[in-house]
Design brief:
alpha/beta
Length: 281
Amino acid sequence: MNQPALRHADSLQTAWQPNEDRIEGMLQTVLSNRFLPQPDSNSVFVGDGNYRAVGAEFLGHFIRMGGLQPESSVLDIGSGIGRMAVPLTQYLDADRARYVGVDPVEGGVAWCRKSVSPVYPNFTFAHVDIAHELYNPMGKINGKALKLPYPDRTFDFAIMTSIVTHLPPDEVLVYFSEISRMLKPGGRLFVTAFVVDRVAAKNENGRRDPRLGFNRSGDGPCWFVPGLPPLAAVGFDDGFLDRALERAGFSTILKSLGHWRGQDAGHYQDVFVAERRGANG
C-alpha cells in the first residue's frame, strides 16, 4: 500500500481548485496538440519514456499534488530539453506567470530557447555551467558552491524532477538551501527521489524495479546501483531528504512513495512537496 505521509490538507488548499475532468481534459489536449514543440527523438538526451506523455503526467502531478497555480512564477532546476516546460506552456498564464528553466547542458537550453521562448516569451532558459561527472564533467561551477542568478523570494514554485537522483548528499543540501532562498514564503518545492527504506532495500514486495537494486554506500546516506556510475542513480536513506528539507527552511506537506519500489502508486519515483516557511515559520 502506498504511504502518502505528511499530507496537510489545509496547506494543500489553493486558490485554483480545478475538478478532475478539467485537469484530465487539459492533459489530453497537451498529448494531442501537434503544434506543441517537440524535439527530434535523437535529441532527447535526458530521461526515459515518451517525451510528451511524461511531461503531461508531471503537469498533472504539479497541479494535483503540488497545488501549482496558473499565475505562478516557476523555477525548473534541470530543465533539460523542455520535457516539463512544454506542457506548462498550456497551463501557466501568459500574462501573469513566469517560467525559468536552468540546466548545465547547453544543447537542451539552446533547443528550448529556439523552440519554446519565441512562441512563449514568458518562458526563459539559462545555461548554468554546474559541474556534474555524468552530464557536464567540464563544468566550471562546483555544485557545492551553487549560486543561481535570481534574487531572494522570486519564485512561487520550484521543480526538481530526477535531479536529486543524480546528486551527492552535500550538493542536495546546497540545492535545497539555494531554492529556499529564491522561493517566496509559502512557495512550494516539488522533488522526485528514490527513498530507500526497508521495503525498498529488501524488495519485500518482490516487485521492485530490477534496474534499481541499490546497495548502501558505507555508512550512508547514499545508495548506489552496482555496475553503474555512482551518480547514475542515487537513493537516500529514508529520513535524509526530510531532514535536509527541514534544515533548508521547508516544511514537508506531502511525501508519497512511488511504484519503483514495487507498491501501487500513481507515480514512479518518490515525491516530496515542501513549503517554504515564512520569516516566523
